[in-house]
Amino acid sequence: MKKISIVILMASSFWGMAQERPELEEIVDPAGPHTPVILMPSIATDRPDITESAQITPVGWFQYEGGYQYSHGEESLPGGSITDRHQFEKVVRFGINQRFEVRAVINANTERIAQQSTWINPIQRITGISPVTFGFKYNLIKESDVLPQTTWLSHITLPWIAGGDYRAPSQGNVVFHEQRLMLEKGLTSRLGIASNIGISGGMSGSNGFVDGGMFSLALGYDLGKDFGVYVEYFSNWQVQGQQLFGTPYFDGGFTKLLSNDLQLDVYAGFDLSPYVTTQLNTSGLFFGTGVSYRLPLAQHLR
């Protein structure tokens, strides 16, 4: 069963790769001309795309990435449904050292689910805060002339930390996990490429330790004047019974740096299933916008 909402939770996004390798800005200590100069690259975010960035939040810095997304998804199979979702996304990140960051994903949602095959209460409304996700990123390999930046992401989603309808008993008490390998490489001074491959599932119960996963590939380009653009292909797969199903998507968007530590974004995408051969008869679209910023909270960690 396809839900565009799963796309968001599995993420959460590479961006902006086109702006992850800008010229370093100088932050000069005003105490005097002979004090050290700190070089700080521009903010590197996981939003707005699905491909998580392989970059680590700077040591001692707090980073917030938030936004709004609307998604519409349809399943045409028997027993299918139409889902409209409004989601307010929040990701908070904190750099512990040069290779390690901790993070949390908090999403507030309003869903309208219409199931035409259900005679009793065919329209269901769900509102609340989705189970909160906690995790970390760990950088395995720094980018070189040959090797890409390579980082591991690990998430767990705790069903008892939720709000509204998402605290209903039907959600169960299964802790879900996601593991993802993230690769990122600059091809030129303006063009970059990134890819993610991941698995997910339940850590107890009947869902299976691995019953889903994803793959993504994104290209980012620096347009100049602090504008960036990206295009992306990604696919979610899941196991139902003895069958493996996949749902492909295409999306793209723009980013704008207002300062070294502040970024705006806008994006849109759609389900490719109606145009390619898939086992699930689905369709859908999504679009959204957001803002990301970072603040130095613990510079003594340096």
Strand order of the largest sheet: 3-4-5-7-8-10-11-12-13-14-15-16
Biggest pleated sheet: 12 strands, antiparallel, barrel
Q: What's the average pLDDT? A: 85
Indicate the CATH topology: Porin
Provide the succession of SSEs. Answer: HEEEEEEEEEEEEEEEE
Question: What is the compact description of this entry?
Answer:
This protein is an all-beta fold and 302 residues long.
Question: Explain this structure to me?
Answer:
It is a single chain. This protein has one helix and 16 strands. With 302 residues, the chain is mostly beta strands. The strands form two sheets. The protein has a twelve-stranded antiparallel beta barrel. Strands 1-2 form a two-stranded antiparallel sheet. A hairpin with an 8-residue loop joins β5 and β6. The N terminus is likely disordered.
Key phrases:
302 residues; mainly beta; Porin; twelve-stranded antiparallel barrel; two-stranded antiparallel ribbon; 1 helix
What is the topological layout?
Layout: H1 4-9, E1 25-28, E2 37-40, E3 61-75, E4 82-97, E5 100-114, E6 123-129, E7 132-141, E8 149-158, E9 163-164, E10 176-186, E11 191-202, E12 212-224, E13 227-240, E14 243-259, E15 262-271, E16 282-296
Antiparallel strand pairs: 1-2, 3-4, 3-16, 4-5, 5-6, 5-7, 6-9, 7-8, 8-10, 10-11, 11-12, 12-13, 13-14, 14-15, 15-16
